[in-house]
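anyone seen this seq b4? input:
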Amino acid sequence: MTTINDVARAAGVSPATVSRVFNGGRVTAERAERVRRTAAELGFAPNRVARSLRMKQASVIGLIIPDIENPFFTSLARGVEDAAQQTNLSVVLCNSDEDVDKERNYLEIAAAEQMAGVIVAAASRSRTDLTVLAQRRMPVVAVDRRPRGASVDAVMVDNEHGGEEATQHLLSSGYRRIACIAGPEGTSTSEERLAGYRAVMRDHLRESGAGPLPSEWVRHADFRVEGGRAAMTELLALPGELRPDAVFVANNLMTVGALEALREVGIEPPAVGVLSFGDVPWASLVRPSLSTVQLPAYDLGWTAAGLLQERIAGVEKPLQTVVLRTALQVRESTAGPDAEPVPS
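predicted toks r here
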């Protein structure tokens, strides 16, 4: 049987450090991750968890999200925590950084520590694998992103409808050459938002006799600020009539990068329209204020935690998928290509 000393030796830390990691003590993030990774590799399960399970008092759930720096996931995590506290469940937060290997490590740790359940926003639609949890019959709820083929409860956003509504608003504002900065290929939220954009643009272009949707108008990025900046820079470099007069950006962090790229070349919305999928706290404070598709992030987390609590309690019922709607918030950044500049 693997002991705490074995884990400490393999991780290059003291047994006391290993104890602090598994008992909620103060440890640097890098060291905690190293200890947990080593423990998972060695198959170490802390005795306190095994003991609590024998007494049917396991009280810890895992929450695995792709990017804690994204305000959307911060709000989602708060919703999970607030709901979990209602039934005295503690939440262990894991940040996968959109990395399937890192996510797999956290899933293995959740299984090794025999957590009461896990809520996961998948890093990849096709490559996220929940088998290690299914083998242990561990309750799992997918939130925001569902891995393909996973038989679990889920709480999702109607991303496609949000993408359709955003694109239709840009057309209604007078923009015609509308581009999309989508997220990573293979991510369900990215694919769904892009599908909504494509459906509206293809209908518009067909009805107007303008031909097919130019492939140059769709750019995939990494849901991060730098990815949005690079994608917007590429769009601004397109020649003539291919150069977009508006852009629908598929998440809030990429929108920050897109705005930075526009500012670098002296362009301010609404001269080029910008609409963000996902709100940010300062959206109404900047000038021009930013039009957004608002996401029910807190409600996603709260609802996911509620479904997980039911499974932990042994409630027998068919798998559920709860879909929450988005809300379009129109502000100055999509006032139209001929609108007067907004004073800063």
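The chain has two domains: 32-38+47-157+297-326, 159-294+328-334. The first helix runs from residue 4 to 11. kinda curious what u guys think
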